[in-house]
Write a structure and sequence with these properties.
alpha/beta, 2 domains, four-stranded mixed beta sheet, about 30% helix, binds ligand EPZ, EC 2.5.1.7, Enolpyruvate_Tfrase_sf
Length: about 425
């Protein structure tokens, strides 16, 4: 397993290219199930989860071709020959559950392994299943698998989501594009990645309105056709590197980044003494003075994104004064806390809230990654810590961030990857 060795204390300066959004690209790949024609996606991030999703689609019978030669442009096409999503893939990547809606819509049946939980929570899929049942799917659970059938196709309905679940919105959205009649999704998730999926589906001939609102309206069509679509920039990668620039007292240009999708993060960073400004083709981020403690609470979009919570907490650990971080989306997303405390942070967890008392500096230590965003939280701390930090289990990071050590080293970080 790979490890990172980081020597802290070097301000980051220079340009970092922001890649395509992981949490959009994964769904756009799944949208390829909705048509036998070619869907070409540009700006696809080169990360492990994309490779896993390619394998999943290929075992469904699709062809996924790397037409740029570097993994950045993928062409998905072909007929579905297998409607089962196996446990060995689904258990590794929860986003696999999103093939359920498209398989039902295209083939009238699907057998998808229940994803099971992950490090940050139990991650149930009850909202996905209830939503698809509202469109007429017959769903049973047995032997750890979801058996879903819609022999007469799906029928458009009004679905009210009790929680603005991103995944449930996406599963339902894709299924509804081929349902008979109109589907309304009330209390739909409003994350920008949903807007990207709607844009791609409409480019494929779907008829969806309501992007960015809490109500999506989908008029089903007979079939979707191929298209070419560019994945939006990764707003979480952008916010993550902004925290790295801030904690090191450096200045970065995040090329391709867009602050428009990071409103709550920009406001929290400004309150903490960090400026994040949109320029032509890039976002400039730098500290404007001493870091100040800030209270944040994670919420569905447009609130503060849960995927930025761990990274922001690392920044707050060396801010002046106290901060409170409340995690309302996942039930176990504080696993970076004990690792940060081993580096000298002073963080106490009380239920879904963590109290952070800022310290003057952190000290390098051997630490362990537990999940994707926690991994980067420890890198951010290591970039500012005195001495050496060794981060193990870097495979968590490689699932969702591309070429981290290269991007950071190019801006002055002392970081290297070593393989056991
Ligand atoms: C997506 O997960 C993202 N993953 C997550 O990013 C992100 O944290 C999350 O949305 C919230 O923004 C991808 O896009 C691949 P949810 P998803 O359905 O769709 C509960 C990362 O780090 N829930 O909005 O699973 C659930 O347990 C990852 O990139 C149910 O109870 O998020 C959780 O507490 C982590 N029943 C909450 O809702 C359901 O049927 C949010 O889940 C579905 C969800």
């Amino acid at each position: 397993m790979d490890r990172f060795i980081i020597h802290g204390g070097h301000p980051l300066r220079g340009d970092i290219v922001i890649g395509g959004a992981k949490n959009s690209a994964l769904k756009l790949l799944v949208a390829g199930l909705l048509t036998p024609e070619k869907l070409v996606l540009d700006n696809v991030p080169r990360i492990a989860d994309i490779r896993t999703m390619r394998r999943l689609l290929e075992q469904h019978g699709l062809t996924v071709e790397d037409i740029s030669g570097d993994g950045g442009t993928l062409s998905i096409g072909g007929e579905i020959t297998n409607t089962e999503a196996p446990y060995n893939i689904v258990s590794k990547m929860r986003a696999s559950i999103l093939v359920l809606g498209p398989l039902l819509a295209r083939c009238g049946e699907a057998r998808v392994s229940l994803p099971g939980g992950c490090a940050i929570g139990t991650r149930p899929v009850d909202l996905h299943l209830k939503a698809l049942e509202t469109l007429g799917a017959k769903i049973t659970l047995e032997n750890g698998y979801i058996h879903a059938e819609a022999p007469n196709g799906l029928k458009g309905e009004r679905v009210i989501l009790p929680f603005a679940s991103v995944g449930a919105t996406e599963n339902l959205l894709m299924a509804a594009t081929l349902a008979r009649g109109r589907t309304e999704i009330v209390n739909a998730a409003r994350e920008p990645e949903i807007g990207d999926l709607v844009g791609c589906l409409n480019a494929m001939g779907a008829r969806i309105t309501g992007i960015g609102t809490g109500k999506l309206v989908i008029d089903g069509v007979e079939g979707l056709h191929g298209a070419r679509y560019r994945v939006m920039p990764d707003r979480i990668e952008c916010g993550t590197y902004a925290c790295a620039a801030a904690i090191t007292g450096g200045e970065l240009r995040l090329v391709g980044g867009q602050v428009e999708h990071l409103g709550a993060v920009v406001r929290a960073l400004e309150e903490a003494g960090v400026e994040m400004v949109q320029e032509e083709g890039a976002v400039r981020v730098q500290r404007t003075g001493a870091l100040r403690g800030v209270d944040i609470m994670t919420e569905p979009y447009p609130g503060f994104p849960t995927d930025m919570q761990a990274q922001f907490m690392a920044l707050l650990s060396v801010a002046e004064g106290a901060s409170m971080v409340t995690e309302t989306i996942f039930e176990n997303r504080f696993m970076h806390v004990p690792e940060l405390n081993r580096m000298g942070a002073r963080i106490n967890v009380h239920g879904s809230s963590a109290i952070i008392r800022g310290v003057h500096s952190l000290s390098g230590a051997p630490v362990m990654a537990t999940d994707l965003r926690a991994s980067f939280s420890l890198i951010i701390a290591g970039l500012a810590a005195h001495g050496e930090t060794i981060l193990s289990r870097v495979y968590h990071l490689d699932r969702g961030y591309e070429a981290v050590e290269r991007k950071l080293a190019q801006c002055g970080a002392h970081i290297e990857r070593v393989s056991d």
